[in-house]
Amino acid sequence: xxxxxxxxxxxxxxxxxxxxxxxxxxxxxxxxxxxxxxxxxxxxxxxxxxxxxxxxxxxxxxxxxxxxxxxxxxxxxxxxxxxxxxxxxxxxxxxxxxxxxxxxxxxxxxxxxxxxxxxxxxxxxxxxxxxxxxxxxxxxxxxxxxxxxxxxxxxxxxxxxxxx
Length: 164
Description:
164 residues; Glutaredoxin; 4 helices; Glutathione peroxidase; globular; four-stranded mixed β-sheet; alpha+beta; 6 strands; two-stranded antiparallel ribbon
């Protein structure tokens, strides 16, 4: 299994395959507009701009499971992220990241890259998963890991070639 085996919904709720990102380094993030971590959008956008020409892509997934910090609909969320943080990376349909209704992609990511002490559940907004060019999750970052703090990991992943 790889992330390419999954289909997700875009902000317009159209089903899209992650196959379209084959060969790219991905950073998959659950986001929220009314969270103390929301300013991370700024540094995520900086990383997107810096590494997009090297095959890097951020994929954002709004989630309202943590203290209802993402209450808006997809249009509201996208407008907020683009107007406030100039976000250019795709923001997808709202999802759940935990529980029986969790997005299957996030179940896969959590299984492949566990959290502290082997925990699988996403603990809060802005948990981040780095995926290599082969679609394999290689790192998990906590909500408190600021995006620029792991820029070296992104740069290293972008330098790696596709194995398949």
